[in-house]
Every structure is written in C-alpha cells, then in structure tokens.
C-alpha cells in the first residue's frame, strides 16, 4: 500500500475526526486531512489546488450539511454543500483520475418499508436534507464511473454534535427525558464507519457503486438513549414517546434499517452490533 495518497474533506466534522483517529491504525498510506478553510467543496478552485499538489488516488468526502432540521429553513445552504459540493468534488476527481468515496444517508428513503433497505430500493426522500443528499449522489453518478457512495445512518461518536452527546448533555441538566420510540434504525459508530472506508480504499476494488454501511442490529431512538445511559452509568427517568408528541421541522423515516449484505460480501467487512460498539464516552 506504500505510496497511496488519500485526501479527506470535511476533516473537522464528526467522520473527519474518526477517520483521523483510525488512520493511526492504517500504516503505509499518506492521508491528508483538509478542513473547509482549506478545501471548501463549494469552491472548486480550492479543491483543484489541493488535488494538483497532492495527486491523490482516493478522496473520502466527509464534508456535508447534516443539520437535518435546520436544512428546512436553509435549503440553499444545504444544496450548496450537499449537491454543488458533491458535483465539484466529482469533477475534480474525474480530472485527476481519483476514486471518490462519497458519504450519503438513510434519509434518502421515505421509511415506509419494514425490512432492511437494500442499495436497489427506490429512494424517496421526505426532507430537504434527504433530497439534497440524493441529488448529491446523482451528481457523483453523472460525472464519475469510479466512485463508492456509502449510505449510512444515525452516526455518533465522541466527536462533533450527535445524538449520544446530546443525550449525555441533557442528562446532566435534567432529571427526566422523553425520547421517540417509534422510529426504527441503526446507530453507526463513526469509528466503525471510518474503518470500513479505509478497507474499501485498501481493497483497490473496481466494484464501484452504492453501498450501505451501519452497525448491525436495530433499535429506536429511545432504545439507543437507554443503552447510552446504561454504558455511562447515568440514572435518569427516561420515557418513550411517539413521533407525533415531538414534532420536528424535518420529517424523519419511521424505518431506515440498512441491509449490509453487499458491502460485507464485496470487502469482507465484519460489522459489529450497535450495542457492542456504544463506547463509554462523555460529552
């Protein structure tokens, strides 16, 4: 693997931090972590500068607009990053013969299914965030043949803003919490996702296309919160509620479990169960 160069965009985000952490265990690869001040994916010229200088074989795009509810009131900003940014990156990757790993989301589905979504299921996003992420996928597919689009769900870690850190913060401020118990999905530890992305680059595979990755198993947000408090020894009055009791600006899929058969088969990836990978993290 000597001589392989990878550029990671969105280095300051949650996944960017996880990739940096996991890169310590990925020897023999030259990985350059670029944050938005250096590689703003909405600015094609800044991307071209980095690619000309580094000549990477792979780019992992961890840059995205992920504020799901805020996107409903900031559609232009979400579109600029998730759609135009993806297009810019794809065009620069094409120019430099670089393979793009682009991260997408379970929000591209409407959540009406009751069995795990495969890569072949028809997307039907119900939110601005989901719509822009699907449009970003389309831009990548239009421009490139050499790409891996990796759809994931409920990403959390000790880095950035996420559900786990929010729960731990709220638990430090309150005696009781109500959490939605009728949305079913799978938490994904950002570190596990980072490991999977590096395995894709190391495989040097030409099996390009869309892949699903989350941890194994399924739960609800209430079940996820319960596990977070359990591993952190947090005592709190936690109550399950319906989605209807907690209205949000963005509509969320009621069911978004992802089928991981394809990625496991193609790359020989062993995926931990979500319950086993919730770390003892403090916010």
Radius of gyration: 18 Å
**Count of discrete domains:** 1
CATH class: Alpha Beta
Shape call: globular
Annotation field: number of helices: 9
Q: Which stretches are low in confidence, meaning pLDDT under 50 for 5 or more residues running? A: none
Helix content: 25-40%
Please characterize this protein's 3D structure:
The protein has 283 residues and is an alpha/beta fold. The chain has one domain: NAD(P)-binding Rossmann-like Domain (Rossmann fold), CATH 3.40.50.720. The protein is built from nine helices and twelve strands. The protein has helices at 14-22, 44-54, 75-95, 128-143, 163-173, 190-203, 221-231, 261-267, 274-277; strands spanning 4-9, 29-34, 58-61, 99-105, 147-152, 155-156, 176-180, 184-185, 188-189, 209-212, 219-220, 237-241. Strands 2-1-3-4-5-10 form a six-stranded parallel beta sheet, sandwiched between helices. A two-stranded parallel sheet has the order 6-9. Helix 1 (14-22) links the parallel strand 1 and strand 2 (29-34). Helix 2 (44-54) runs parallel beside helix 3. The longest helix is centred in the N-terminal third of the chain and has 21 residues, at 75-95. It is globular. The relative contact order is 0.16. The mean pLDDT is 95.
